[in-house]
Model the fold of this input.
Amino acid sequence: MRYHLMTAAFAASVAFAAPAAATDLEVTHWWTSGGEAAAVAELAKAFDATGNKWVDGAIAGSGGTARPIMISRITGGDPMAATQFNHGRQAEELVQSGLMRDLTDIAEKEGWKDIVRPSSLLDSCTLDGKIYCVPVNIHSQQWLWLSNAAFEKAGVAVPTNWDEFVAAAPALEKAGITPLALGQQPWQASLAFQVLVVALGGTDLYNKVYGEKDADAAAGPEMATVFKAADDARRMAKGSNVQDWNQATNLVISGQAAGQIMGDWAQGEFAVAGKVAGTDYSCLPGLGVNEVIQTGGDAFYFPVLKDAEKSAAQDVLASTMLAPATQVAFNLKKGSLPVRGDVDITAANDCMKKGLDILAKGNVIQSPDQLMSADSLTQVNDLFVQFFNTPSMTAEDAQKTFAEIVAAAD
Ligand code: GAL
Done:
């Protein structure tokens, strides 16, 4: 009798827990490197475990390639069920046009406001008081990744800051090692420049230039130091003839190059290659000078679909992405920090721990996208790409043009 009751109870609980039917959801993103693919597989695994099916819609290339494709599918009436964008305003027009699901109900039910930190991440998802996206990680760009083996081969100590890195360049070159790996896609040169500004110039200079559009600061001596460093970086990167950021990271992983200025997503590549932070590679947040990070990252948006079953599965996916276990598994592979402070991240490696520490201290900055209009920022970024690709352009000339752009920026 007792046995029968238990069986019945068990059967009932299984019936209750089992999803009505498996629903396929196509999810688009630009995560195609080894580390990125390993991380996104964790999201897929977690969603599949709910009884639904993640249909992977990876788009090769950078975010700059993927975003127009995503946007045109949504505006063209062929929406995917969920899609990646960066934190910020990239999906703003889609939201304003009513093409994205309002997630406020589920956000309130699950208390996202109490869970997600820093609160700016959820703010970026919010328009007119309604929540339209799920932040999944905190990614920062302000890092220098170093190959310990490269420095050993060159007979110099692994640098602890930018100046030591520059000083090591001749010894590295003598040992046949490219000091700085830099992919040719334009965004990588602009990223390096933005990192040099905040790391070497400090948060005040960064905010003055990008935030207040202070032309005097842009033309001043502190900024001249940054341009001098950019000139060093340009020389140190000569000979790193790769395109994609992860190819550049691979040069560091294999010890062909000594360092790379890149976002913390580079950690995913080191992890896939079986490299250990602190042993095989070192990381210097803020180039070892000003330890600061930008709380950028990725968020998922859910286009409005005319299918009740898929809409219900979208809610499950949104909730799954923020679930503690998913946050830990995904971010450990991605090299990013979880968006919730209440998860157990003791498995974080040395570099992630540095990031968590900086975050806890509140040494955070806003991204240039948040501070400067897209037009002005494009001009700044173009100038820097030009500077990197034109050895005859002096640091002084570049700074002069920079100050003019900042003077006219909004
Ligand atoms: C960023 C994104 C990261 C990372 C990187 C390189 O835009 O936030 O998740 O993967 O691109 O693909």
About this structure: Residues 143-294+366-408 form a domain with the D-Maltodextrin-Binding Protein; domain 2 fold (CATH 3.40.190.10).
